[in-house]
Design goal:
Elements (H helix, E strand, L loop, with lengths): L9 E6 L18 H14 L4 E4 L10 H12 L6 E3 L16 H7 L12 E5 L2 E5 L3 E2 L2 E4 L3 H13 L4 E5 L14 H7 L4 H9 L4 E6 L6 E5 L8 E5 L10 E6 L3 E7 L6 H9 L3 H9 L5 H6 L7 E4 L11 H4 L1
Parallel strand pairs: 1-2, 2-3, 5-8, 8-9, 9-11
Antiparallel strand pairs: 1-12, 4-5, 6-7, 10-11, 12-13, 13-14
Helix pairs in contact: 1-2
The structure holds fe (ii) ion.
């Protein structure tokens, strides 16, 4: 039975890059175990008093068996009832070809769960948290971009939000997990190209507590765009449950704090199998070019504060910024 007792808390799960693929092969992502992993997380969500689940893109793998991947995703999310929304990832935003569905087909199949065929951005409320989902995909490209239309939508929703907390959900990161190291090819492949203007907008609204993203399959929590100890927002990059370090997240909002916790599949031996396979992928080779000192597995897993963190929140002021007039 779904637990709906929250005592003033709002508990939201963020699951991104699930890569559901019932016919999937074992690669750096354990796609052959993606269905089992997803089902395990859904079971755990029943126990965690979760009010909503945010699927952050690459929900299905869509590389050869797109229709079957979509069907499996719809079946796996059934136990969640109406308590979930989803955004696109680059795997849903594929160029249409045999074995792949396009983003419109995905959106039509989940119509009303955040996105729909005519609505690729959304804004909805769970408890005291407004969730704004923005489409950061560019069809046929792994990299991200936020269109002017989406920027206007985002600005309008942030300006009109009356809830105490706002989180923005997108697939692509706005900030590099690999900072302070630099790798141009990773910037192009993983980040939102016009991220500076998006960051600037998000940081203009104190109610924006976090930007939730995935795509890079690494776990990181970074305070970005702040000034000293104030301003800015938390850039929460969540790994894939199907690839090492195999995690999703729970976010618990109260009036005074945000608790971020890792949510991991409870499957024996998964971490060891994932650690072995993730080192066979292209990303592992590219990581060497970075010249970073942490071992690759440590880089992906992040530190303890990239996985479990309690953030003290200051009440958001009522005044809304005037930056909006330009964006209307
Ligand atoms: Fe992914």
């Amino acid at each position: 039975m779904w637990n709906t007792s929250h005592r003033g808390e709002t508990v939201i799960a963020h699951i991104t890059d699930a890569h559901v693929a019932p016919h999937g092969r074992c690669t750096a992502v354990l796609k052959h175990r993606s269905v089992e992993i997803f089902a395990d997380l859904v079971d755990q969500l029943h126990e965690a008093a979760v009010q909503a689940v945010l699927f952050g893109g690459d929900n299905i793998d869509n590389r050869g068996h797109g229709e079957e991947d979509l069907e499996a995703f719809l079946q796996l999310t059934q136990p969640l009832g109406h308590r979930w929304v989803a955004q696109f990832g680059n795997h849903e935003a594929a160029t249409r070809r045999p074995g792949r569905i396009d983003k419109y087909t995905f959106a039509k199949a989940i119509d009303g769960r955040g996105i729909g065929p005519h609505q690729h951005d959304f804004s909805t409320v769970f408890g005291d948290v407004r969730v704004v989902g923005i489409d950061t995909t560019l069809v046929g490209s792994p990299g991200g971009f936020v269109s002017p239309e989406t920027m206007r939508f985002l600005a309008r929703e942030l300006a009109s939000a009356e809830e105490q907390h706002v989180v923005v959900l997108g697939h692509h990161p706005l900030y590099p997990a690999w900072a302070p190291y630099a790798l141009d090819s990773w910037d192009r492949e993983y980040l939102v190209a016009n991220r500076h203007v998006v960051c600037s907008l998000l940081a203009s609204f104190p109610r924006v507590r976090a930007y939730l993203c995935g795509h890079h399959h690494a776990s990181r929590i970074q305070r970005v765009w702040g000034r000293g100890q104030s301003g800015g927002f938390y850039h929460v990059q969540t790994a894939s449950p199907a690839a090492f370090p195999h995690s999703a997240r729970l976010l618990t909002f109260t009036d005074t704090e945000l608790r971020i916790q890792a949510l991991r599949p409870k499957i024996d031996g998964l971490l060891e199998e994932g650690a072995k396979w993730v080192q066979t992928g292209r990303k592992s080779g590219r990581y060497e070019q970075l010249g970073a000192s942490p071992p690759f597995l440590d880089y992906l897993a992040g530190a303890e504060e990239d996985n479990n963190l309690v953030v003290q929140l200051t009440p958001a002021p009522d005044r809304k910024p005037e930056v909006l007039e330009e964006l209307r």
